[in-house]
Write a structure and sequence with these properties.
This is IclR family transcriptional regulator. Helix content is about 45%, strand content about 20%. The two termini are about 25 Å apart.
Length: about 260
């Protein structure tokens, strides 16, 4: 099984629910009661009490107030580990995406995949009044948008099938066609792609693969309103994004 495998591990149902319980605690929802967790995860209250007790036992959860629980400072170590692991990528990418941002005056982003989602790990913000949904740390589906699709294309066909199983039936035919194995294989070989209004209405985007020693580790992309990106400007942005991906890849592979 690969590091990014989307296949479920057999016999790990309890462990999966335990981790899902912990992952319910976010910046937007920092405290939970057992009853609310049980409802959120569709679990029996007795099972949820057991998972909360286990997380308290290892020091990851503690009481907040009343019947609510919160994540403890021990969880900060996980965040620090994440920062340490992505440091080489962000250090290599930040000056490059800042330079591209300055040239096109559009937001430029770096994303990585984790499980069944893509996550923005760095971004250089445009001065233009356009709000993109892809904030740092925010999960985005791997089937929508050029940055996510580059990451999806880098996976094996089996991994893609697992991720897309519940998604493809509900997509319009044109969108579903972009996610066929044949089209994703072409995207992987080409190393870049573009999208039209897949995530945000009226927005065009392009992205390219960042590699380290031949393996795709991230994607770099930009997006802009369609009304201000004619074909010539889109071609220039694609050129800059592809060149930036190559530059970052060379830096990462030299380490």
């Amino acid at each position: 099984m690969t590091e990014q495998s989307a296949h479920r591990v057999s016999g790990a149902g309890s462990g999966r629910k335990l981790l899902q319980t912990l992952l319910c605690f976010t910046e937007a929802h920092p405290t939970w009661t057992v009853a609310d967790l049980a409802a959120e995860l569709d679990l029996a209250t007795t099972s949820t009490y057991r998972y909360v007790a286990l997380l308290r036992e290892v020091g990851l959860l503690d009481r907040a107030s009343g019947k609510s629980y919160r994540v403890t400072d021990l969880a900060l170590n996980l965040g620090r580990a994440c920062e340490a692991a992505r440091a080489p990528l962000t250090e290599a990418a930040l000056p490059v995406i800042t330079r591209v941002r300055d040239e096109i005056d559009e937001t430029v982003l770096i994303a990585r995949s984790g499980g069944e989602a893509a996550y923005c790990v760095e971004r250089a913000e445009s001065r233009r009044p356009v709000r993109l949904q892809f904030d740092k740390g925010q999960p985005m589906p791997l089937h929508a948008g050029s940055m996510s699709r580059i990451l999806l294309a880098s996976m094996s066909r089996a991994e893609r099938a697992s991720i897309l199983a519940g998604v493809l039936p509900g997509l319009p035919p044109a969108r579903a066609a972009l996610l066929s194995d044949e089209e994703l294989d072409r995207t992987r070989l080409r190393g870049w792609t573009e999208s039209f209004e897949e995530v945000d209405e009226g927005i065009w985007g392009t992205a390219a693969a960042i590699t380290s020693h031949g393996a795709v580790v991230a994607s770099i992309g930009t997006a802009a309103p369609i009304f201000r990106t004619d074909r010539a400007r889109r071609d220039r942005m694609i050129e800059l994004v592809r060149a930036a991906a190559s530059e970052i890849s060379l830096t990462l592979s030299a380490d």
